[in-house]
Amino acid sequence: MRRDDGTLTSTRHRWLFGGRGCSNQEVNTERPGEPDPERPRSREPERPEQPERPEPREPERPEPRAPEDRDTREEHAAREEHEDPAERGRPIGRRVLLGTLGLGALGVLTAPTLQRGMEAFLAGASQRDPTGLTGLLPNGGGFRYYSVAASVPHKNETNYRLTVDGLVDHPTSYTLADLRALPQTRLVHDVQCVTGWRVPSTPFEGVRLSHLLDAAGVHHSAGAIRFTCFDGTYTESLSLRQARRPDVLVALRMQDKPVGHNHGGPVRLYVAPMYFYKSAKWLSGITVTEDVRPGYWENRGYDVDAWVGRSNGRDDEPTS
Questions:
Q1: Which residues, 6 or more positions from 187, have their beta carbon under 8 angstroms from its beta carbon?
Q2: Which of 31, 210, 266, 271 could form a disulfide with 278 if both were Cys (CB 3.0 to 4.6 A apart)?
Q3: What angle do CA 271, 275, 278 make, to 5 degrees?
Q4: What is the Cα 95 distance to its own chain's centre?
């Protein structure tokens, strides 16, 4: 029997003793006068509750598709025959394709500007980084920036000076204009750093160091050159014989443009056959001495004779 609240209940029937009457209109078929043993109660089987039926929903209609021409339909059909249904995607439209091509062209046009900006950022950061960690980051040109000073002053045509002194007959001071007026030599070699990176076919242009030494008149007792820099910290050295090589320059240009401040300008040393730490940046002084005086990195374990491929435990290909 179902109640008003919708739940089911069972109706119990019990056989009565004697008489013909029975409750709930049931008939006793036993003989009268005999006691009737109690029979098991019968119960109406319970009906399981019926789950509520969800309300019917209107079927979703697929979005209308733009008509396709015959070639497009055939192409889609051929692709769907060999494609996993789970991996099928929607084809890109004409606007998306044109937009992608446009972004690619924009990237080509803006890449040089972005590269120069990144190069300038890394160079500036390296000059303020006493840990030297920024020097581990490459830029588009392949160079890393190293500086052992917290900051480096800028020099230009008005305040730059390069002095040549020590064991010489004619100590001299050169301005940028003076150096530019001297005979220039152009060299193109690979730049090899002792940390492993290399920039191939890098052009440098400047005055041969041997020319400045000859003009100063080196004493017979001289045996080496000591280089100082206007960062106030870095020093380097060469033997006199090494300094007179034709591939050692006081460089004014690098990569066919004036040596910028970030690359050690306006004037730097360039020692083509040696690891790049020998090519001192921000060059300000050339002092002729009797013996080789180890430079900044030599005092910290680097080789004094830093020939590429023959020092510092490396076997890089020589640069000349």
A1: 203, 204, 205, 247, 249, 270, 272
A2: 271
A3: 55
A4: 31
Give the residue among 130, 125, 78, 123 at the shortest CA–CA distance from 264: 123
Tokens representing 319 are: 């640069």
**Spatial separation of the C-alpha atoms in residues 134 and 122, rounded to whole Å:** 7
Mean pLDDT within 7-23: 42
What's the average model confidence in pLDDT over 172-179? 98
Q: What share of the chain in percent tops pLDDT 70?
A: 55
Ordered domains of the chain (ranges, CATH): 162-300 (3.90.420.10)
CA distance 166 to 152: 25
Enumerate the H helices of the chain as residue ranges.
Answer: 70-82, 94-127, 176-181, 209-216, 240-243
The Cα 243–Cα 265 span in angstroms is 20
Phi, psi of 257 (to 5 degrees): -155, 160
| Token pair 């109640």: residue | 3
Q: What does the alpha-carbon distance between residue 303 and residue 301 come to, in Å, rounded to a whole number?
A: 7
226 contacts 235 by C-beta, under 8 angstroms: yes
Q: What is the pTM of this model?
A: 0.59
At residue 227, φ and ψ (nearest 5 deg) are -110, 135
35: Cα within 13 Å, side-chain hemisphere? 2
Kindly report, residue by residue over 205-225, the tens digit of the pLDDT: 999 999 999 999 999 999 999
Between 267 and 55, whose confidence is greater? Answer: 267
Predicted local distance difference test score (pLDDT) of residue 196: 86
Min mean pLDDT across 80-89, 123-132, 220-229 is at: 123-132
The DSSP output letter for 133 is G
- pLDDT at position 20, please? 41
In this structure, are strands 224-229 and 283-289 parallel, antiparallel, or unpaired?
antiparallel
